[in-house]
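Researcher:
Attend to token order:
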Amino acid sequence: MKLATSATEVDPGKNKEPESSSLSQNSISHSHRKAFCKWATTKGLVHRDAPQQPGTNYLDGKSHPFPLNPQFQPKPPISSETRVRVYDDWKSGLGIQQLSMKYSISLQRVEAILKLQQVSIRWTTESSRLN
């Protein structure tokens, strides 16, 4: 006696989508793809490359990356020089709270900077050993 291993073996009609449903989903995704390609070669062309000057390249050209969610306003990125200075100050003995106050960065962000700098240094030393 063979036991059923899936729901479709018990009831072959179960969990099957009608063919028209999958066709309509396919045509919707195709139309979305076409719309994106059109946008990417017209209005979206300015967003193809990173901005030449420091800063952001948001769709609306203002302060938020998602035009339909203006409440989301992320903090600006921290420069590489600042991240290195934060890490060097930490290595010289400053605590996380002191670094947070000195650079006006949240504690969580300081911790993330320190962790990422450590990972970056570890990767650099490991890759030099491999070469």
